[in-house]
TrEMBL record:
Pathway: Amino-acid biosynthesis; L-threonine biosynthesis; L-threonine from L-aspartate: step 3/5; Amino-acid biosynthesis; L-methionine biosynthesis via de novo pathway; L-homoserine from L-aspartate: step 3/3. Keywords: Amino-acid biosynthesis, Methionine biosynthesis, NADP, Oxidoreductase, Threonine biosynthesis. This is Homoserine dehydrogenase. Residues 374-449 form the ACT domain. The active site is at residue 208. Gene3D superfamilies: 3.30.70.260, Dihydrodipicolinate Reductase, domain 2, NAD(P)-binding Rossmann-like Domain. Its EC number is 1.1.1.3. L-homoserine binds at residue 193. Transmembrane segments: none annotated. The keyword NADP applies. It comes from Cephaloticoccus capnophilus.
Length: 455
C-alpha cells in the first residue's frame, strides 16, 4: 500500500460513540495521517434514518441504511461496529470478518455472547477483531493484558468496570442519600440509561469481566456462571457501617486464578474495600483496574470508563493498530484460540476444548471461593435473637468476627450487622437461606463481600 493512499473506514452506527469517532478523526486528521503514515477517510456511515436531523452535519453521500452494505464493501477494509446490541451487530461483524476485513468494536455484550465464534471466524477467513473500547472506555486495559503484560500469568484482576454504579455509590456515600434519589439524578444527568438494570444489576460489568477473563486465562465464562449481584439494595446505613469498620463500598469485578488447582472464579458484586486500597478512593464515573502478574507484580489503571471521548479514544487506538496491520502486514493482536464454556460442561465446572493454556482451566466451585462477609439483618429487638442467629451460622461453619447493632425505624426492630471470619460461598448461601426463613428476621438479609487484596 503506497504512503499516499487513503485508508477507508466504515462506521456502522452513529450514536454517541460513532459521533465521537467522527469528531476526533476530523479534528486530528493531519496529525493522525502523519503518525500513521497514511490519511484516514470515513467512506460510509450506516444510520437507521438518513433523513434524521443530527447535531453533527454529515455529507449525505456517506450515509447508508444497511450496515451490511458497509461490512461487505470491497473498498472499505476497516469496519467499526458501534451499533450495540447482539443481533444485527453479530451479523455485521461476521460478514465483515468473512470478507477478511478488520472489525473494530466497542460492544462488550457481543464479545461476551459470541466471542468464540467471532474469533474462530476471523481465524478462518483472515480477518481481525479489535475491541479495546469494549472494556473500561479510555483505559488501555486490553492492550496491557495482550501486549505489555504478555510475559505474565494473572492470579488476580479486580476493579471498577462500571462508571454508572461508581457514580451512584459515590454520591450515596458523600451525600448520605438513598439509592433511588441518586439513580433519578444519574438518569437526568445522562449517567444512567432509562432502563438502568444492565448497569446497576451488575450485568454490564459482568460482560466486561468475561472479556478480561478470556484475555487473562483463555476461557469464556458466561455471566450465568459468575456470581453477579447489583447495588440496588445498598443503603446509606451500609456506608456508615462500612466506614465504622474502615471500609468503602464499590461495585467490583474480581477475576482470580489458583494456579495450583488451575481454577478460575469470576465475580461481580458490591464489596467492602479497605480505605487504604487505592481503588477505594476512585470516585464518580471513573473506572480503575488492578492487575497482578506473576512477573511484574501489581499494576494499576485508572481513567474515564465511559463517555463519548473516552470510548472514541479507544476506538481510534484500534483503528491505528488496524492501519499498522494493513500497511505492514504485522500486528500484535492475535486471533487467539479460545476455550468456551459449554452449558453442558459449565454446570460441572469444566472448560471446553481450546488452547493449551485454557484446556486445563476449570471454574472454581462455590465451596472453594473463600472470603470474609458483611451481613445486615433487620431483626426483632428481643433477647436470644443474636444467639439463635449465631447458632445457625455455626452450623454452617461460619464464624462471627464482629457485631454492630443500631436502632431501626421500627421501635420493635433492630439493625444487626455481622462480619465473618473466612468462609466460603456455599456456606454463606446456605446460611442466608436459613436465616431468611426465621420469624425474627424481617425482610431479606443483605450480604456483601469484604475484599482485602494482597497488593
Amino acid at each position: 500500500m503506497s504512503k499516499d493512499t487513503s485508508i477507508n473506514i466504515g462506521l456502522c452506527g452513529f450514536g454517541t460513540v460513532g459521533q465521537g469517532v467522527w469528531k476526533h478523526l476530523e479534528q486530528n486528521r493531519a496529525e493522525l495521517a502523519a503518525r500513521l503514515g497514511a490519511p484516514l477517510r470515513i467512506a460510509a456511515i450506516a444510520v437507521r434514518d438518513p433523513q434524521r436531523k443530527r447535531a453533527v452535519k454529515l455529507p449525505p453521500k456517506l450515509l447508508r441504511e444497511d450496515p451490511l452494505e458497509i461490512a461487505t464493501a470491497p473498498d472499505i477494509p476497516i469496519v467499526c461496529e458501534l451499533m450495540g446490541g447482539t443481533d444485527l451487530a453479530h451479523r455485521v461483524t461476521l460478514a465483515a470478518l468473512r470478507a477478511g476485513k478488520i472489525v473494530v468494536s466497542a460492544n462488550k455484550a457481543l464479545i461476551c455472547e459470541h466471542g468464540a465464534e467471532i474469533f474462530a471466524t476471523a481465524r478462518k477467513h483472515g480477518g481481525h477483531f479489535f475491541f479495546e473500547a469494549s472494556v473500561a472506555g479510555g483505559i488501555p486495559i486490553i492492550k496491557a493484558l495482550r501486549e505489555g503484560l504478555v510475559a505474565n500469568r494473572f492470579p488476580q484482576i479486580y476493579g471498577i468496570l462500571n462508571g454508572t454504579c461508581n457514580y451512584i455509590l459515590t454520591q450515596m456515600e458523600e451525600r448520605d442519600a438513598p439509592y433511588a434519589e441518586i439513580l433519578s439524578e444519574a438518569k437526568a444527568m445522562g449517567y444512567a440509561e432509562a432502563d438502568e438494570s444492565l448497569d446497576v444489576g451488575g450485568w454490564d460489568a459482568a460482560h466486561k469481566a468475561a472479556v478480561l477473563a478470556w484475555l487473562a486465562h483463555g476461557l469464556w465464562v458466561p455471566p450465568s456462571r459468575m456470581i453477579v449481584e447489583g447495588i440496588e439494595r445498598v443503603t446509606p446505613a451500609d456506608f456508615k457501617n462500612a466506614a465504622t469498620l474502615g471500609y468503602s463500598i464499590k461495585l467490583l469485578a474480581i477475576i482470580t486464578r489458583d494456579f495450583a488447582s488451575n481454577e478460575v472464579s469470576v465475580k461481580v458484586h458490591p464489596a467492602l474495600l479497605p480505605d487504604h486500597d487505592v481503588i477505594a478512593s476512585v470516585n464518580g464515573v471513573y473506572n480503575a483496574i488492578s492487575v497482578t502478574g506473576d512477573v511484574v507484580g501489581t499494576t494499576l489503571y485508572i481513567g474515564k470508563g465511559a463517555g463519548q471521548d473516552a470510548t472514541a479514544s479507544a476506538v481510534i487506538s484500534d483503528i491505528a493498530d488496524a492501519v499498522a496491520l494493513l500497511r505492514s502486514g504485522k500486528c500484535v493482536h492475535l486471533n487467539s484460540e479460545v476455550a468456551p464454556l459449554p452449558a453442558e460442561q459449565a454446570s460441572a465446572g469444566k472448560s471446553g476444548e481450546g488452547s493449551v493454556a485454557a484446556s486445563a482451566v476449570t471454574l472454581a466451585p462455590l465451596e472453594r471461593i473463600h472470603g470474609r462477609y458483611y451481613l445486615r439483618l433487620t431483626v426483632r429487638d428481643e433477647p436470644g435473637v443474636l444467639a439463635h442467629i449465631a447458632s445457625i451460622m455455626a452450623q454452617h461453619a461460619v464464624s462471627i468476627a464482629s457485631v454492630l447493632q443500631t436502632p431501626s425505624e421500627d421501635p420493635e426492630m433492630a439493625s444487626l450487622v455481622l462480619t465473618t471470619h473466612d468462609a466460603n460461598e456455599r456456606a454463606m448461601r446456605d446460611t442466608l437461606h436459613e436465616l431468611s426463613r426465621l420469624k425474627v428476621v424481617n425482610g431479606a438479609p443483605l450480604l456483601l463481600r469484604i475484599c482485602e487484596f494482597n497488593t
